[in-house]
Write a structure and sequence with these properties.
It is found in: Cell membrane. It is a peripheral membrane protein. Keywords: ATP-binding, Cell membrane, Ion transport, Iron, Iron transport, Membrane, Nucleotide-binding, Transport. By secondary structure, the chain is of the alpha/beta class. The protein has helices at residues 3-9, 55-62, 85-89, 107-112, 127-139, 155-168, 185-200, 212-218, 236-239, 242-249, and strands at 17-26, 29-39, 44-48, 70-75, 78-79, 92-95, 173-177, 204-208, 221-226, 229-234, 253-257, 264-268. The strands form 3 sheets. A 6-stranded mixed β-sheet has the order 6-7-8-3-9-10, with helices on both faces. Helix 5 (127-139) packs antiparallel against helix 6 and helix 6 packs parallel to helix 7 (185-200). The protein is globular and about 60 Å long.
């Protein structure tokens, strides 16, 4: 299936997760102001924008790690603030920007922690949990490394181990905060191809990415931010324009068709050659 066909098939016109008139920030410093957004079901939505524009703040607000000062996040018709913690964790998984594993923990043990939302005093570890961990390891290509210490892994392997932990939660929605940062190009592609496979399997994914061209190639839906506001959203073919690049990043660019994907490809212009 081509990326164009993927884009046409992504989403159902419905949205389980949305934010309405959201105001959020840190210690009295506002970051998001009156922001509203809907995450299309079945999409791979990528949030783009320059540093400090509010991308991670929005992502963290969607999963209740940040309490908004005004507005609300709605999941399945209910305010996220009112949803019990374990119920929320069984619906939305999060891969944080910076993840620290306990020293000496194995990949299998780390991934097993993704089953915590499904445990209780009356429900302990089960064959269902074992199957979920096994499937998460397989989906991320980490099964052969299950007994290895996380400390021994390469950057790309470590990132896949954390993604596997998030997958083990078996949530229909998965949020990833800068999953490719600090990875070399080969590992970046591994992670993004995995995201594509997960979306094709029926999950809805939301990721913060810094690489504009990678976002345009892999995403089915783009949310572009600047200064705490959403300035454009839609399919990559719709929002991947020179006007948007100038508005969001302040960079003059030429847009051509990516010969590999048929998507927009951004070629920044040197200041001396800008129109």
């Amino acid at each position: 299936m081509t990326h164009s066909a993927d884009a046409a098939l992504a989403g159902t016109g419905t949205s389980r997760l949305r934010a309405e008139s959201l105001h959020a920030g840190y210690e009295g410093r506002p970051v998001l102001a009156d922001l509203s957004v809907e995450i299309p079901d079945g999409s791979f939505t990528v949030i783009l924008g320059p540093n400090a524009c509010g991308k991670s703040t929005l992502l963290r607000s969607l999963v209740r790690l940040i309490r908004p000062s005004a507005g609300s996040v709605i999941l399945d018709g209910a305010a996220v603030a009112s949803i019990p913690t374990k119920q929320l964790a069984r619906t939305v998984g999060l891969l944080p920007q910076s993840s620290q594993a306990p020293e000496g923990i194995t990949v299998a043990d780390l991934v097993s922690r993704g089953r915590h939302p499904h445990q209780s005093l009356l429900r302990r570890w089960s064959t269902g949990d074992e199957d979920a961990v096994r499937q998460a390891l397989a989906d991320t290509g980490m099964a052969e490394l299950a007994s290895r210490s996380v400390d021994e892994l390469s950057g790309g392997q470590r990132q896949r181990a954390w993604i596997a932990m998030a997958l083990a939660q078996q949530t229909p929605l998965l949020l990833l905060d800068e999953p490719t940062t600090f990875l070399d190009i080969a590992h970046q592609i591994e992670v993004l191809e995995l995201c594509t496979r997960l979306r094709r399997s029926g999950r809805t994914l939301v990721a913060v990415l810094h690489d504009l061209n990678q976002a345009l190639r892999y995403a089915t839906h783009i949310v572009a931010m600047h200064d705490g506001q959403i300035v454009a959203q839609g399919a990559p073919q719709e929002v991947g324009t020179a006007v948007l690049v100038e508005k969001v990043y302040g960079v003059s660019a030429r847009i051509i068709e990516d010969p590999e994907s048929g998507r927009p490809l951004v070629i920044p212009r040197a200041p001396s050659s800008a129109d």
